[in-house]
Each structure stands twice: as structure tokens, then as C-alpha cells.
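Design job #97: recover the sequence.
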């Protein structure tokens, strides 16, 4: 048996041996548990004490990471090694947030940092000009920016613009992703085409949704201004295609193919964010991401935030077999974080084959889902507390909000977050439920009513607490999740940087479109019947 197989077997055995032992009992047995099963670093507190992980489990998880050479693989990734073998590419998003003198970081024998920083400076000059009204629309200073992109060319900046809205003092930013015309129609309604900057964000500049929306935006602008092209900017690796679209070279911000879509908000894809919050704040976010990179490389394994978060994920998904994981930011401005993490985690590690082309030995990425609290409490948390499936939860919460006059809101928010995690772990027994209802019901009715109010408890959660959602903290949080996904991918033997699973649907969409015009296509009877219904035949 390989060392890794032995560690998995050890983890399975530890899990089986712990069947029936409750998480709450671990706290009774060890008054220091909260401190011993949490990591404090960079102003953050990652508490995983409300999980069933104990010292032997943690040791076995750390062995698993060591056997997978996580630390060496992380160093190789950040040094520019080809960690995406199916596409023959490096994955160097960390270079986008590295200081210029941090290198050299070489790809094909060339240090990439001078080019990264040259582009960053061009973005900054452009963002400053837009913010100051020097770069103008044909009707005056820009009031609105529309970012057109999808997947990684949308979710990162859209999530971050919302997250950092207290710092936004530039033009208003809007995001259009869906090919559903409703998205662009609703976004452009009410905007002044003569004072709107359209940013077409697409690594490949071929993505159907983005190109369709970009053409619609250009047609909208053409109705009001003489030269729509000059009110466009492009963020792309495809210089020829951006030129063919008519976007002037000085408005094109390129990046290399070693920036994966879902890892791209740190570079040109973040332009809308930079325009919203300003270059200085954007650099603070980069510094936050870079801090996490250094921490990931340098912190010892048992005090390493990304490694710890990843190992809790491995424990829950691959050892305990929980199929989903809920992300619950108690931070309304992180409302798009679950969607962002869905792409990051599921597009990276939702694979059915290892990098070596074999069937994975364990389930791969869990389904990631979530919503901000407290809203979540009034919808799906019913299932999380009392349903028949265990959903490990990841809470995020800040010590401080941004509005001192609303501190009482924040206290309530935090209390709710802590209460959810506590309730999930503690639960409520039948005898507690009976005692609670004894003055209202009796006999069989008491029994019936009490059973409805039983909470199994022992439901695991992890909480990431941080001082305040500043640009730097957002950078740390996003990079933390990026590295957690990397660690999980390495342990599972997955190439986290390709996404072949999105291709088949794209191909079929192209070949089925003619069916909606009444042309004959090859498809199942169901699809042909639906197409006929939808075209009104
Ligand atoms: O930036 P592009 O090339 O338009 O791609 C957008 C998105 O499409 C995908 O390739 C697949 O959906 C994502 O990985 C990517 O973020």
C-alpha cells in the first residue's frame, strides 16, 4: 500500500472509531480545545474546533498533505512550473500580486514581473484618468462602467466591487454576464451611453456570451455616440481579436495565458474594481493576497491557514463523505462570495479523473453553495439544522462593520453567526424538547410536539473571523480560498487549473441553435420536442 493509501486508510479507521462521539464532548474533555484547534495569523482567526477533528485525525491529515508534497507543489506553482499539464501552462496568479522585486518568477526563461507591473501601471494610469474625468465619454466624464464578461471574467470583480463598496468613490460599476438579453437590457436601461465606459473582459475574446453582449452594447452606444470604439476597453490575452473588435490598443490591458479565468481578479480582469475603489486600494488588496502567499509558503503546517482550511475540507468531503459544503458569510457585502467560490472550487476540483488520467480514489470537490447570514437562517438553514444530510458549514464574520452608527446591527449579526455554529454543534435532545414544552402539552401530544423540536446537533462548522472587510483583508480571504482549493487538488491528484467539463455543453449549444430556427439537427426526441415547443411550433 502506498503511503497516501495508508493515510487514507488511517483516516477511515479514525473516523470509524469516533462514530458516536460528539463534538461537544471534545470540548468537555479538553478545555483548551478552542485554542488548540484554531489558527491565528494575519489578524484572522480560523476556528475548526467545532468539527470532529482531534489530535490523531489532524496528524493523519497533515501526513496526507506531506505525502502529497503540498509544500513543494506550492513552491513550484509560485515559481512558474507547468502545474496545468493538460493545457501545458503555469498557473501564476500569485505573480499578479507579487511586488516587482519579489522575483524573478520565470516562464520560458523570462521574468514575468516587469511585464505584470508595466500592465498594472497602465491600468492605474487609465483608472486615475477615468476617475478624474480626464478619460471621458463623448458626453462628459464617465458616470458608469459596465464590465461584460462571464465566469472568471465576471465573478471576481463583481464579488469584490460589492465587497468593497464602502471604499468605492469612482463611477458606478455594473456587471453583465448572462447571454440572456435581460441581463444587458436591464443593466443598460437608465445609463447614458455617452457617459458609459464598457469593459469587455474575456481572456479568450471568443466566449459567446461575452461577444454577444459586447456587440449589443456597441450597437446601443452607436445609437448615441459617433465613435463607440473609444468608449470601450478590453481585458484579454487575445490582442488580434480585441483590435478586430475595434478597441484601440491603448485601451487593451493584456495578460498571459498562465492566468486562469477563475484566478484572474488580481490583474487586468480587476480593472472595474480598480476604477471603483482607486489604484491605492487595489494595491492594498494585492498586498493582502501576497501576504497570504507568503504565509502559505512559510507558516508551519499546523499554523497554516490555507492548509488547515483545506484539510478540514478533505476531512468532511473525502473522509466523512459529506457531499456538500455551505459557505455562510455573515457579511452582507460578501453576498457574491458563495457564487465566486462555486466557480473557484467546483470548476477547479469538480473532476472525475486525476491528472494522471485515472479514476479518483475518493469523491472530488463537494457541491459548494451558500448565502449570507442572517438571510440564510430564514430559508435553508432549516435543512442544515434538522435535515437528514449533514452539511459542513463555513462561516465568515468580521469583528467590525463599516458604520459606527449601526454597531447594534453588527452585534446582532455576530451574535447570530455564533449562535448558528453553536446550535449546529449542540443540538437539542428529545428530553430537552419535552422539558421545554411540558407546560403546554401532555401525553402523546407532548411527544409529537417534542419530536418536531429535536435538533440532532453534532453538525460541524468552521468559522473564519477577521477584523474588518478592508481591501487588504479581502485579498487575504480570496487568496486563502485559492490556496485551499490548490491543496485539496494536490491531495486528490487533480489538475485544478483546467476545466474540460464546460466544453461539451458549449459545443452542443452551437449545434442546437439551428433547431430553434426550424432547421433539422441531430438530438434526442426530448430535446427536439422542447426545441419545437420553444420556437412555438
Ligand atoms: O474569459 P473568457 O475567455 O471569456 O472565459 C470565461 C470563462 O469561461 C470558462 O472558460 C469556462 O466557463 C471559465 O473558466 C472562464 O472564467
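Job complete. Output follows.
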Amino acid at each position: 500500500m502506498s503511503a497516501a493509501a495508508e493515510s487514507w486508510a488511517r483516516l477511515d479507521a479514525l473516523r470509524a472509531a469516533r462514530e458516536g462521539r460528539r463534538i461537544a464532548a471534545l470540548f468537555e474533555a479538553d478545555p483548551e480545545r478552542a485554542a488548540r484547534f484554531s489558527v491565528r495569523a494575519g489578524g484572522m482567526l480560523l476556528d475548526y474546533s467545532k468539527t470532529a477533528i482531534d489530535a490523531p485525525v489532524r496528524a493523519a491529515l497533515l501526513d496526507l498533505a506531506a505525502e502529497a508534497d503540498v509544500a513543494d507543489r506550492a513552491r513550484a506553482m509560485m515559481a512558474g512550473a507547468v502545474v496545468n499539464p493538460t493545457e501545458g501552462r503555469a498557473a501564476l496568479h500569485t505573480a499578479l500580486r507579487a511586488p516587482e522585486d519579489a522575483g524573478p518568477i520565470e516562464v520560458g526563461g523570462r521574468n514575468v514581473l516587469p511585464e505584470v507591473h508595466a500592465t498594472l501601471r497602465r491600468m492605474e494610469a487609465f483608472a486615475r484618468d477615468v476617475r478624474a474625468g480626464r478619460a471621458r465619454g463623448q458626453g462628459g466624464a464617465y458616470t458608469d462602467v459596465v464590465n461584460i464578461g462571464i465566469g472568471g471574467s465576471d465573478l471576481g470583480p463583481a464579488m469584490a466591487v460589492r465587497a468593497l463598496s464602502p471604499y468605492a468613490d469612482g463611477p458606478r460599476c455594473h456587471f453583465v454576464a448572462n447571454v440572456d438579453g435581460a441581463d444587458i437590457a436591464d443593466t443598460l436601461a437608465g445609463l447614458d451611453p455617452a457617459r458609459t465606459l464598457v469593459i469587455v473582459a474575456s481572456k479568450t475574446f471568443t466566449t459567446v456570451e461575452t461577444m454577444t453582449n459586447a456587440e449589443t452594447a456597441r450597437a446601443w452606444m452607436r445609437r448615441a455616440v459617433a465613435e463607440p470604439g473609444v468608449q470601450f476597453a478590453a481585458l484579454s490575452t487575445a490582442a488580434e481579436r480585441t483590435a478586430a473588435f475595434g478597441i484601440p490598443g491603448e485601451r487593451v490591458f493584456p495578460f498571459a495565458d498562465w492566468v486562469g479565468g477563475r484566478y484572474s481578479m488580481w490583474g487586468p480582469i480587476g480593472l472595474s474594481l480598480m476604477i471603483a475603489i482607486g489604484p491605492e486600494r487595489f494595491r492594498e488588496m494585492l498586498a493582502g493576497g501576497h501576504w497570504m502567499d507568503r504565509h502559505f509558503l512559510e507558516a508551519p503546517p499546523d499554523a497554516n491557514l490555507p492548509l488547515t482550511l483545506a484539510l478540514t475540507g478533505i476531512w468532511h468531503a473525502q473522509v466523512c463523505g459529506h457531499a456538500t459544503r455551505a459557505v455562510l458569510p455573515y457579511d452582507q457585502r460578501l453576498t457574491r462570495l458563495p457564487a465566486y467560490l462555486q466557480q473557484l472550487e467546483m470548476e477547479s476540483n469538480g473532476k472525475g479523473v486525476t491528472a494522471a488520467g485515472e479514476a479518483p480514489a475518493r469523491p472530488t470537490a463537494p457541491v459548494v453553495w451558500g448565502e449570507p447570514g442572517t438571510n440564510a437562517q430564514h430559508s435553508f438553514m432549516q435543512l442544515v439544522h434538522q435535515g437528514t444530510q449533514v452539511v459542513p458549514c463555513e462561516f465568515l464574520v468580521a469583528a467590525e462593520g463599516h458604520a459606527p452608527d449601526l454597531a447594534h446591527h453588527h452585534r446582532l449579526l455576530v451574535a447570530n453567526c455564533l449562535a448558528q455554529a453553536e446550535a449546529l454543534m449542540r443540538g437539542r435532545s428529545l428530553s430537552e424538547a419535552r422539558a421545554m414544552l411540558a407546560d403546554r402539552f401532555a401525553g402523546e401530544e407532548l411527544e409529537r410536539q417534542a419530536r418536531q423540536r429535536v435538533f440532532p446537533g453534532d453538525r460541524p462548522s468552521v468559522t473564519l473571523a477577521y477584523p474588518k472587510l478592508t481591501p487588504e483583508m479581502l485579498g487575504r480571504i480570496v487568496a486563502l480560498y485559492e490556496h485551499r482549493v490548490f491543496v485539496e487538488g494536490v491531495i486528490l491528484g487533480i489538475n485544478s487549473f483546467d476545466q474540460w467539463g464546460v466544453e461539451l455543453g458549449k459545443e452542443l449549444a452551437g449545434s442546437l441553435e439551428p433547431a430553434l430556427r426550424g432547421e433539422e439537427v441531430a438530438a434526442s426526441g426530448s430535446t427536439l420536442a422542447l426545441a419545437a415547443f420553444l420556437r412555438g411550433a
